Amino acid sequence: MWCPYTLPECGHSFCEICLVDWFSTTQVQHLTANPQLDDNRAALVGQLHAFVQMVPNLHAYGPHGQQHVRAILAELRRHRPEYTCPSCRKQVLNKPVEDFRLKSLIKDIAEMMGETCKDTSLHQGSGPFDHFFAAPISAR
After folding, report:
1. pTM of model > 0.85
2. Contact 3, 19 (CB under 8 A)
3. What are the DSSP calls for 73-86, one per residue?
């Protein structure tokens, strides 16, 4: 576990490669069960979902407007895979976060055991989970 990531919803940590494999399997299963969707459309749906959630002053639209936005969000969720924690199966809605403290601890233990730290990160320039999760939603 040279590159550990923590799931924000439950706090469990896993190596990057394991999480990418887990989320990829979930995505393939979702696309197989929903052949009308394709990989690019699923990514666009995630981005649109994040955009709709950022609608300012949702309360200003009144109960009818709020209900309409909630209906749109529910429809969009049907088109996205439901990613879960490999351990506790809690739904994962946000990108995993690289755990630098755990990474440092692993590096220190490996060095004490005579091993050299390997950078097994899969991503080049973008995050390893960008393909699975929409951009984070800014707090209002």
Report:
1. no
2. no
3. HHHHHHTS---B-T
Closest-CA residue to 54 (of 134, 122, 140):
140
What is the residue whose two structure tokens read 């052949």? 35
How far out from the chain centre does Cα 122 lie? 15
Find the distance separating the first CA and the last CA of the chain, reported in whole Å: 36
What is the CB neighbour count within 10 angstroms for residue 100? 9
Q: What is the pLDDT of residues 76-117, one digit of tens each?
A: 666 778 999 999 999 998 999 999 999 999 999 988 998 876
Q: Hey, what are 20's tokens?
A: 């990418």
**Segment 61-70, tens digit of pLDDT:** 677 776 777 7
